[in-house]
Write a structure and sequence with these properties.
The complex is a heterodimer of chains A (about 150) and B (about 375).
Chain A lengths: L2 E3 L2 H9 L4 H14 L3 E3 L2 E8 L2 E8 L5 E10 L2 E15 L5 E11 L2 E10 L4 E3 L2 H19 L1
Parallel strand pairs in A: 1-5
Antiparallel strand pairs in A: 2-3, 3-4, 4-5, 6-7, 7-8, 8-9
Chain B lengths: L11 H16 L7 E3 L4 H6 L4 H6 L1 H14 L22 E2 L7 E2 L18 H5 L2 H4 L4 H15 L7 E6 H7 L3 H10 L1 H26 L3 E6 L9 H21 L6 E8 L4 H5 L8 E8 L2 E2 L2 H8 L4 E6 L9 H15 L6 E5 L9 H14 L6
Parallel strand pairs in B: 1-10, 4-5, 5-6, 6-7, 7-9, 9-10
Antiparallel strand pairs in B: 2-3, 7-8
Helix pairs in contact in B: 4-7, 7-10, 8-10, 9-10, 10-11, 13-14, 14-15
The chains are: A alpha+beta (about 150), B alpha/beta (about 375).
């Protein structure tokens, strides 16, 4: 088990976003057990689908066996297959394989469209960065709900 | 009298139907028929008895004309107003109104490559407060006025839009288009820097729009950067990469998620570069004007872009002022048959803005073709 610390200001932020601390712990522990997360410097980015939401946690992993949570966010769209792979980013897998910028299929309310994501073509995994999840995709989800009404 | 007092209220029955139709290609919920977007601008003002100059000089009047005439021709349920040179005023160019044209520049203000270093990228705050210094063509205050007018008088048509528009073409105006094209051969780093400064200004502006309205659709194009002017490498270097940078930068600042990519002019071979060079959001429309001298074939558009975005096909704008409605009808039919079953939806458009003196019979031919060959469930 990873020793997880969630600073007070981060607790406040994730509460506003409707994310539970238990979900944050679940995301980190699952990532540690499966080694399915990506790193940039000391930062780790992990995700897990929990109850229809894809929950992400960014943590500082500089301490041994510890994770200090820097932020957590979520989106409702589900991520599908990789659509294209573009340039490499500074993110890497735990074993040092570079992660690329690209696009993936995103499904919401039975509609499949494309959206930008970090992609690992070797495994088919993908991750959405915070600015896209909390701004671009959040508005897109609202538009889907309105247009499908 | 306010402009709103000069127009009857919008017909709710028409608007409700048009709204459902407009949603169709984005949410796989077919309704009515393929939508038609002739990119109507000053043609709407002319159709209401005003002038081209009125459209640009009185933007609130102009956008109300767009909303009103969209009902006449059964077009989109949303309003828009723009011209091709946003943000250049704040970068130092002087624009003047003309009788028969959108606002144009009085001339370039820089001539030497080292001048580009002097160009100041206005911050978001400077753009928001630009009216005192630059008057009514200051971009952010102008769009705030326009969208506030629409929110008050045509709220059901409101889509706040931020325009990067032609990142290369507008940047080139700062130094003169011919000079800029020369730089792309002799001073490519200065040309890069110039387009980047314009792009950064546009991103700051998009953030100002998104701050106020919660989001902002993005319209960005590749107009000067086309195969009549540049080879594919030039289009990629100056246009595709900056379009990606613009959309990514805007998303980081809260603008989007809707994106309309508009490739005007001849994109004979460079169209292939956009497929894996642009940023695609769940609400993206991709439009190409011409391939060589002919409208870009919708079948080719579908083949290359249907797995990326909603495709928008083109009828040659020249036909909209050619007194032969069947030319429009037949070309629209060909484009509809080529593109109507695009996987992420299809919209029938014109290659660029429909001309100010568009003949009403040609507009009817365009929409009639969509009704005859674009009705969901009949193909």
């Amino acid at each position: 088990m990873v020793k997880i610390t969630i600073p007070a200001e981060v607790k406040e932020l994730i509460a506003k976003r409707g994310i539970k601390e238990s979900d944050v712990n679940d995301v980190i522990n699952t990532a540690a057990a499966t080694k399915r997360y990506i790193k940039k410097g000391n930062d780790g980015l992990a995700k897990k689908v929990i109850g229809g939401l894809t929950v992400y946690v960014v943590s500082d992993l500089s301490g041994k066996g510890t994770a200090v949570v820097k932020t957590a966010y979520a989106h409702k769209m589900s991520l599908g297959k990789i659509v294209n792979v573009m340039s490499e980013t500074d993110w890497k897998t735990p074993d040092g394989r570079p992660i690329a910028q690209g696009h993936v299929e995103m499904e919401y309310m039975t509609v499949k469209r494309n959206g930008p994501a970090l992609v690992d073509p070797a495994t088919g995994d993908s991750w959405v960065e915070e600015y896209l999840a909390t701004k671009t995709l959040a508005v897109a989800e609202g538009l889907f709900e309105k247009k499908r009404a | 009298m306010g402009y709103e007092e000069m127009f009857p209220a919008m017909d709710k029955r028409w608007h409700d139907n048009a709204t459902k139709r407009f949603a169709s290609p984005f949410v796989d919920n077919p309704h009515d028929r393929i939508d038609v977007d002739p990119i109507i601008l000053s043609a709407a003002a002319v159709a209401c008895g005003y002038t081209i100059r009125d459209f640009y000089e009185k933007p609130e009047l102009g956008i109300h004309c767009v909303g009103y005439i969209s009902h006449l021709y059964d077009l989109l349920p949303v309003t828009h107003w723009f011209f091709s040179l946003p943000w250049v005023t704040e970068l130092g160019l002087k624009l003047v109104y003309k009788e028969t044209l959108p606002p144009i520049s009085t001339g370039p203000i820089y001539s030497a490559p080292e001048d580009v270093d002097k160009m100041h990228v206005p911050s978001k705050e400077e753009l928001v407060n630009a009216q005192a210094k630059y008057g009514q063509l200051a971009t952010v205050p102008m769009f705030y006025r326009i969208y506030d007018y629409v929110a008050k008088n045509l709220p059901m048509t409101l889509v706040p839009i931020s325009y990067g528009f032609d990142l290369v073409g507008a940047a080139a105006e700062m130094v003169g288009v011919e000079n800029f094209i020369m730089w792309t051969f002799t001073e490519p780093e200065a040309a890069d820097k110039l387009v980047d400064k314009y792009t950064q200004t546009s991103i700051n502006g998009a953030e100002a729009l998104a701050d106020k309205y919660g989001s902002a659709m993005l319209i960005v194009g590749s107009v000067l950067a086309n195969n009549d002017i540049f080879n594919d490498e030039g289009v990629e270097r100056y246009s595709v990469k900056n379009m990606y940078k613009y959309v990514d930068g805007c998303f980081k600042r809260g603008a989007g998620p809707q994106v309309f990519y508009h490739l005007c002019g001849n994109h004979e071979t460079d169209y292939k570069l956009f497929r894996d060079g642009l940023m695609w959001s769940p609400f993206t429309v991709f439009h190409v004007g011409y391939k060589g001298r002919n409208p870009f074939p919708s079948s080719l558009l579908k083949q290359n872009f249907q797995d990326r975005a909603t495709c928008m096909g083109s009828v040659d704008t020249k036909l909209m002022i050619d007194p032969n409605p069947n030319k429009v009808y037949n070309q629209a039919k060909e484009q509809l048959l080529g593109g109507r079953d695009s996987k992420k939806g299809y919209i029938l458009g014109t290659s660029c803005e429909t001309p100010p003196y568009t003949i009403p019979g040609q507009m009817l031919a365009l929409v009639k073709a969509a009704r005859d060959f674009g009705t969901y469930g009949t193909w």
